Protein backbone atom coordinates (compact mmCIF):
# COMPACT_ATOMS: atom_id res chain seq x y z
CA UNK A 1 0.00 0.00 0.00
CA UNK A 2 1.22 3.49 -0.84
CA UNK A 3 2.20 5.86 1.95
CA UNK A 4 0.31 9.06 1.05
CA UNK A 5 2.86 11.31 2.77
CA UNK A 6 5.70 10.18 0.52
CA UNK A 7 6.53 11.09 -3.06
CA UNK A 8 7.51 7.80 -4.66
CA UNK A 9 11.18 6.90 -5.00
CA UNK A 10 11.87 5.92 -8.59
CA UNK A 11 15.03 4.00 -9.46
CA UNK A 12 16.29 4.50 -13.00
CA UNK A 13 19.50 3.48 -14.72
CA UNK A 14 20.91 1.17 -17.34
CA UNK A 15 20.18 -2.57 -17.41
CA UNK A 16 22.14 -4.54 -14.84
CA UNK A 17 22.96 -1.67 -12.48
CA UNK A 18 21.09 -3.26 -9.56
CA UNK A 19 17.85 -1.24 -9.47
CA UNK A 20 15.79 -4.22 -8.32
CA UNK A 21 18.27 -5.23 -5.60
CA UNK A 22 18.39 -1.69 -4.19
CA UNK A 23 14.62 -1.18 -4.47
CA UNK A 24 13.87 -4.39 -2.59
CA UNK A 25 16.46 -3.53 0.07
CA UNK A 26 15.07 -0.02 0.66
CA UNK A 27 11.50 -1.27 0.81
CA UNK A 28 12.26 -4.06 3.27
CA UNK A 29 14.35 -1.88 5.58
CA UNK A 30 11.91 0.99 5.67
CA UNK A 31 8.67 -0.90 5.60
CA UNK A 32 7.60 0.65 2.32
CA UNK A 33 5.68 -0.80 -0.61
CA UNK A 34 7.70 -1.79 -3.64
CA UNK A 35 7.24 -2.83 -7.25
CA UNK A 36 9.57 -3.83 -10.05
CA UNK A 37 7.93 -2.25 -13.10
CA UNK A 38 9.03 -5.00 -15.51
CA UNK A 39 7.60 -7.67 -13.20
CA UNK A 40 4.36 -5.67 -12.98
CA UNK A 41 4.11 -5.47 -16.78
CA UNK A 42 4.77 -9.21 -17.12
CA UNK A 43 2.07 -9.99 -14.57
CA UNK A 44 -0.45 -7.64 -16.16
CA UNK A 45 0.15 -8.95 -19.66
CA UNK A 46 0.78 -12.58 -18.76
CA UNK A 47 3.63 -12.45 -21.28
CA UNK A 48 7.41 -12.29 -20.93
CA UNK A 49 9.30 -9.13 -21.92
CA UNK A 50 10.79 -10.84 -25.02
CA UNK A 51 7.28 -11.96 -26.04
CA UNK A 52 6.00 -8.38 -25.76
CA UNK A 53 8.95 -7.07 -27.80
CA UNK A 54 8.37 -9.75 -30.41
CA UNK A 55 4.61 -9.24 -30.70
CA UNK A 56 4.25 -5.47 -30.23
CA UNK A 57 7.75 -4.17 -30.97
CA UNK A 58 9.73 -1.92 -28.64
CA UNK A 59 7.24 0.92 -29.21
CA UNK A 60 4.39 -1.32 -28.02
CA UNK A 61 6.42 -2.20 -24.94
CA UNK A 62 7.08 1.50 -24.23
CA UNK A 63 3.33 2.24 -24.34
CA UNK A 64 2.60 -0.52 -21.85
CA UNK A 65 5.51 0.61 -19.70
CA UNK A 66 4.12 4.14 -19.57
CA UNK A 67 0.62 2.96 -18.70
CA UNK A 68 1.97 0.72 -15.92
CA UNK A 69 4.30 3.47 -14.64
CA UNK A 70 1.31 5.77 -14.11
CA UNK A 71 -0.55 3.03 -12.22
CA UNK A 72 2.45 2.17 -10.07
CA UNK A 73 3.18 5.80 -9.14
CA UNK A 74 -0.19 5.99 -7.44
CA UNK A 75 0.12 2.58 -5.80
CA UNK A 76 3.70 2.07 -4.58
CA UNK A 77 6.35 3.93 -2.56
CA UNK A 78 9.39 2.56 -4.38
CA UNK A 79 9.55 1.63 -8.06
CA UNK A 80 12.43 0.03 -9.96
CA UNK A 81 12.07 0.85 -13.63
CA UNK A 82 13.47 -0.85 -16.73
CA UNK A 83 16.66 0.68 -18.13
CA UNK A 84 14.98 1.92 -21.29
CA UNK A 85 12.10 3.75 -19.65
CA UNK A 86 13.59 7.09 -20.66
CA UNK A 87 13.37 6.01 -24.32
CA UNK A 88 9.62 6.45 -24.16
CA UNK A 89 8.89 10.17 -24.47
CA UNK A 90 5.70 9.96 -22.40
CA UNK A 91 7.47 8.23 -19.51
CA UNK A 92 10.43 10.59 -19.79
CA UNK A 93 8.13 13.63 -19.56
CA UNK A 94 6.31 12.12 -16.59
CA UNK A 95 9.54 11.30 -14.75
CA UNK A 96 10.78 14.88 -15.22
CA UNK A 97 8.09 16.08 -12.86
CA UNK A 98 8.72 13.59 -10.08
CA UNK A 99 10.86 14.77 -7.19
CA UNK A 100 12.68 11.60 -6.22
CA UNK A 101 14.19 9.96 -9.25
CA UNK A 102 17.44 8.18 -8.36
CA UNK A 103 19.92 7.27 -11.08
CA UNK A 104 21.82 4.10 -10.31
CA UNK A 105 24.96 3.64 -12.33
CA UNK A 106 28.12 1.49 -12.44
CA UNK A 107 31.00 0.57 -14.75
CA UNK A 108 29.89 -0.61 -18.14
CA UNK A 109 32.27 -3.59 -18.04
CA UNK A 110 30.50 -4.80 -14.89
CA UNK A 111 27.13 -4.25 -16.53
CA UNK A 112 28.25 -6.13 -19.63
CA UNK A 113 29.34 -9.17 -17.62
CA UNK A 114 26.00 -9.23 -15.85
CA UNK A 115 23.70 -8.90 -18.82
CA UNK A 116 25.46 -10.19 -21.93
CA UNK A 117 23.53 -13.00 -23.54
CA UNK A 118 20.57 -12.52 -21.20
CA UNK A 119 17.75 -13.86 -23.34
CA UNK A 120 15.22 -12.10 -21.11
CA UNK A 121 16.63 -8.68 -22.08
CA UNK A 122 15.96 -8.07 -25.79
CA UNK A 123 18.03 -4.87 -25.82
CA UNK A 124 21.11 -6.63 -24.41
CA UNK A 125 20.87 -10.06 -25.94
CA UNK A 126 23.54 -10.68 -28.60
CA UNK A 127 25.03 -7.19 -28.23
CA UNK A 128 28.78 -6.66 -28.16
CA UNK A 129 30.37 -4.46 -25.49
CA UNK A 130 30.75 -1.78 -28.14
CA UNK A 131 27.06 -1.89 -29.08
CA UNK A 132 26.02 -1.80 -25.45
CA UNK A 133 28.32 1.16 -24.84
CA UNK A 134 26.68 3.11 -27.60
CA UNK A 135 23.18 2.34 -26.25
CA UNK A 136 24.37 3.39 -22.78
CA UNK A 137 25.85 6.64 -24.12
CA UNK A 138 22.65 7.49 -25.95
CA UNK A 139 20.71 7.27 -22.67
CA UNK A 140 23.00 9.03 -20.21
CA UNK A 141 21.77 12.57 -20.78
CA UNK A 142 18.17 11.56 -20.18
CA UNK A 143 18.96 9.77 -16.90
CA UNK A 144 20.94 12.82 -15.89
CA UNK A 145 18.13 15.20 -16.73
CA UNK A 146 15.53 13.52 -14.54
CA UNK A 147 17.61 12.38 -11.55
CA UNK A 148 17.91 14.26 -8.28
CA UNK A 149 20.84 12.05 -7.28
CA UNK A 150 23.21 9.68 -9.04
CA UNK A 151 24.63 6.72 -7.10
CA UNK A 152 27.27 4.18 -7.96
CA UNK A 153 25.91 0.73 -7.24
CA UNK A 154 29.31 -0.79 -6.54
CA UNK A 155 28.90 0.60 -3.00
CA UNK A 156 27.30 -1.50 -0.24
CA UNK A 157 23.50 -1.31 -0.11
CA UNK A 158 23.61 0.10 3.43
CA UNK A 159 25.77 2.98 2.23
CA UNK A 160 23.47 3.71 -0.71
CA UNK A 161 20.52 3.74 1.64
CA UNK A 162 22.33 6.13 3.96
CA UNK A 163 23.06 8.60 1.14
CA UNK A 164 19.46 8.48 -0.08
CA UNK A 165 18.06 9.08 3.41
CA UNK A 166 20.45 12.00 3.97
CA UNK A 167 19.39 13.58 0.69
CA UNK A 168 15.72 13.16 1.50
CA UNK A 169 16.19 14.70 4.93
CA UNK A 170 17.94 17.75 3.45
CA UNK A 171 14.79 18.74 1.55
C1 LIG B 1 15.21 -2.59 -21.20
C2 LIG B 1 15.54 -2.89 -19.90
C3 LIG B 1 14.87 -3.97 -19.15
C4 LIG B 1 13.44 -4.18 -19.67
C5 LIG B 1 13.43 -4.36 -21.15
C6 LIG B 1 14.05 -3.18 -21.91
C7 LIG B 1 16.03 -1.58 -21.92
O1 LIG B 1 14.88 -3.68 -17.75
O2 LIG B 1 12.62 -3.09 -19.30
O3 LIG B 1 14.14 -5.54 -21.44
O4 LIG B 1 15.66 -1.20 -23.04
O5 LIG B 1 17.07 -1.15 -21.36
P1 LIG B 1 16.19 -3.83 -16.80
O6 LIG B 1 16.86 -2.49 -16.75
O7 LIG B 1 15.62 -4.21 -15.48
O8 LIG B 1 17.04 -4.89 -17.38
TrEMBL record:
Q: Cite the binding residues for Mg(2+).
A: 20
Please indicate if the UniProt record lists Protease as a keyword: no
Q: Which UniProt keywords apply?
A: Amino-acid biosynthesis, Aromatic amino acid biosynthesis, ATP-binding, Cytoplasm, Kinase, Magnesium, Metal-binding, Nucleotide-binding, Transferase
Q: Where does substrate bind?
A: 38, 62, 83, 139
Gene3D superfamilies hit by this protein: P-loop containing nucleotide triphosphate hydrolases
Chief location of this protein within or outside the cell = cytoplasm
Instruction: Give the EC number.
Output: 2.7.1.71
Q: Which InterPro entries match?
A: P-loop_NTPase, Shikimate/glucono_kinase, Shikimate_kinase/TSH1, Shikimate_kinase_CS
Q: Pathway it belongs to?
A: Metabolic intermediate biosynthesis; chorismate biosynthesis; chorismate from D-erythrose 4-phosphate and phosphoenolpyruvate: step 5/7
Q: Which HAMAP family match?
A: Shikimate_kinase
The protein's name is Shikimate kinase
Organism of this sequence: Staphylococcus succinus
